Amino acid sequence: MRGSRHARRAVTRRAAPRRAVARCAAGVLVTALAATACGSGSGGGNGGAVLTSSWGDPQNPLEPANTNEVQGGKVLDMLFRGLKKYDPRTGKARNWLARSIETRDSRNFTVRLKTGWTFSNGERVTARSFVDAWNYGAGLGNHQKNAYFFGYIDGYDRVHPETGAQRADKLSGLKVLDDHTFTVRLNQAFSGFPDTLGYAAFAPLPRVFFTDHAAWLRKPVGNGPYTVGSYTKGAQMYLRRWDGYPGPDKARNDGVTLLVYTDSNTAYTDLLAGNLDLADDIPAAQLKNVRGDLGDRYLNTPAGIIQTLAFPYYDKAWNRPGAEKVRTGLSMAINRRQITDTIFRGTRTPATDWTSPVLGAAGGFKDGLCGRACVYDPARARELVKEGGGIPGGRLTITYNADTGSHREWIDAVCNSINNALGDDKACVGNPVGTFADFRNQLGRQKMTGPFRAGWQMDYPLIQNFLQPLYYTGASSNDGKWSDERFDRLVDKANAERDTARSVAGFQQAEKVVRDAMAAIPLWYQNGNAGYSERLSNVALNPFSVPVYNEIRVG
Predict the structure, then answer these.
(1) pLDDT band at 405 (very low <50, low <70, confident <90, very high)
(2) Which strands form 174-178's sheet, in the order they lie side by side?
(3) Which pLDDT belongs to residue 189?
(4) DSSP letters of 390-431?
(5) Taking the CA atoms of the chain, what radius of gyration do you get in angstroms?
(6) Do residues 189 and 107 touch, judged by C-beta distance below 8 A?
(7) Helices (H), ranges, 163-315
(8) pLDDT band at 30, cuts 50/70/90?
(9) From CA 541, how far away is CA 527, in angstroms rounded?
(10) For the chain, how long is the longest CA-to-CA vector?
(11) Is the pLDDT of residue 26 over 80?
(12) Is the CB of residue 333 less than 8 Å from the CB of residue 417?
């Protein structure tokens, strides 16, 4: 999934206020089953070095191929290990369960597995564990949100046809040769394919996933350094260290209790009060205080995250000729620098392209690719909105989830900027949705009538991942249903390039198509930030902004 890190600077620290509590703070949803997890004590109720961390309920059950959002991804990062693993400091894809992945033509790959890996139930991880999991993930009838990631493999058009019923159960491009070897044939050359295989959708699955699926959903079994101890939806998930884990990245704590918070401010308050060990989403309102509150226990590190405003292209009002002028005008009406300076205080940088600086220039980041369209220019913004026929319906309504990320503050600031630029204090308003899961469900049902928050956290460190999943026709995270044949052709051509530099250049040509249509408005690049309690040490965020839970020490 996910550069360089800022050095943490020691800051004079004032003691965090502490208070005795008989119950959890109101901002975290709990039940009687979860009560033992409250406070910085024993997490899942088993005692020992268990840490507590803020969390939000996943949108879907934790099937690897059905999880395409951050909260579920945090859990999968602890429960599973795949063929590749992304270095928690550099983001580089390294062989993990794979002993080797070889190809002569970037289309036909031979995968050889290391021996000695098992699932937490004792079952061996074999080539079949991967092939069966990928076939399941690709199957139309299994309704997996990440099915699209298997679209490069031969036979996907029969396993997951664009129209009609599923015509095959297995991808013809996957063949098991023996317990530790399988082959993959793609439907086109894709030189970056091996580096995608650290993404959770490509994780192996045990037989119980298929033979007793309901039981697996209640208590997922994986092959990572943690196992699921318990889960109460809307309250908490407790993950305990798996002592038999065969990998080199064993957990350095006894477990992690993920507590569901509906308000990041409450999580921060609990952190300061000693009732929470780790909050990995510092609210914007607290950024002015966080250094004084936490000192060097505050993390602010570059991450492969970009925040954008996306549009519902299934709504004809946003897909008519001239609408690209309106979208470009709205982009020029947003004063990115002022918003990032006043609200985010060093944790965001105004975006000038649609990728992330963590890729580096060689990886595809192109500073300034957006050009004037990402520069604040109220006069030109007004002209373009007018030339494009005005804002559909006369008012811009930006929908966002209100439970995490301090989104209300920046959405209000974006609307204020647009209103000021257009000279109309009612041109833009925010539309909060209570929870992230409800927000994602509305997107899935294509209920948007205006722009919506569309933050993207990379799945793997390739420019392809910032473009194809979001803007390719029918792609898994193309929530607005934007479609452009030229963009699709350029992406296909870039994927087929065996030379990395030529492939990156091809993707940048495709990115210019996104720019010219202003398919989505890039806002800012986001750092990962977090704060942690005095109980913890060796805390870090990876380039995906996710805590490296297995390396955290307690006590």
Answers:
(1) low
(2) 98-103, 108-113, 181-185, 174-178
(3) 86
(4) -SGGGSEEEEEESSSTTHHHHHHHHHHHHHHHHT-TTSEEEE
(5) 23
(6) yes
(7) 193-196, 208-211, 213-218, 264-273, 290-294
(8) very low
(9) 10
(10) 68
(11) no
(12) yes
Token digits of residue 545: 């902004």
> On the CB side of 490, how many CA atoms lie within 13 Å of its CA?
21
Q: Tally Cβ neighbours within 10 Å of residue 215.
A: 12
Query: What is the rounded CA–CA span in Å between residue 527 and residue 299?
Result: 9
**95 DSSP β-pair partners:** 84
Is 6 in a helix, a strand, or coil? coil
How much is the pLDDT for 550?
A: 98
DSSP-assigned beta bridge partners for residue 257: 52, 238
Whether the per-residue pLDDT at 349 is higher than 60: the answer is yes
- The letter for the amino acid at 349 is T
With H, G, I as helix, E, B as strand and everything else as coil, classify residue 283. coil
Q: At what angle do helices 323-332 and 500-517 cross, to 10 degrees?
A: 100
Q: Are 455 and 308 in contact (CB under 8 A)?
A: yes
Model confidence band, residue 219 (pLDDT cutoffs 50, 70, 90): very high
Q: Is 122 left (phi over 0), alpha (psi -120 to 50) or beta?
A: left
pLDDT digits (tens, 9 = 90+) for 229-263: 999 999 999 999 999 999 999 999 999 999 999 88
Alpha helices in 154-309 (DSSP H): 156-159, 193-196, 208-211, 213-218, 264-273, 290-294
User: Cβ neighbours of residue 487 under 8 Å, at least 6 residues apart?
Assistant: 471, 472, 510, 513, 514
* Distance in angstroms (rounded) separating the CA atoms of residues 202 and 179: 17
Q: What counts of helices (H) and strands (E) characterise the chain?
A: 17, 20
pLDDT at 4: 26
Q: Where are the beta strands (DSSP E) in 186-297?
A: 226-232, 236-241, 255-260, 278-279
With CA atoms as reference, report the closest residue to 307 among 117, 527, 501, 127. 527
**Angle subtended at Cα 506 by Cα 153 and Cα 388, rounded to the nearest 5 degrees:** 105
* Structure token digits, residue 254: 């006894």
Give the closest residue to 57 by CA, choosing from 291, 401, 344, 431. Answer: 401
Q: What angle do CA 459, 351, 482 make, to 5 degrees?
A: 60
Is residue 165 within 8 Å of 45, Cβ to Cβ?
no
3-state SS class at 526: strand
User: Please, are residues 471 and 454 in contact by the beta-carbon 8 Å criterion?
Assistant: no
Three-state DSSP state, 383: helix
Burial class (CB in 10 A: 0-12, 13-18, 19+), 114: middle
**Alpha helices for 110-230 (secondary structure H):** 127-138, 156-159, 193-196, 208-211, 213-218
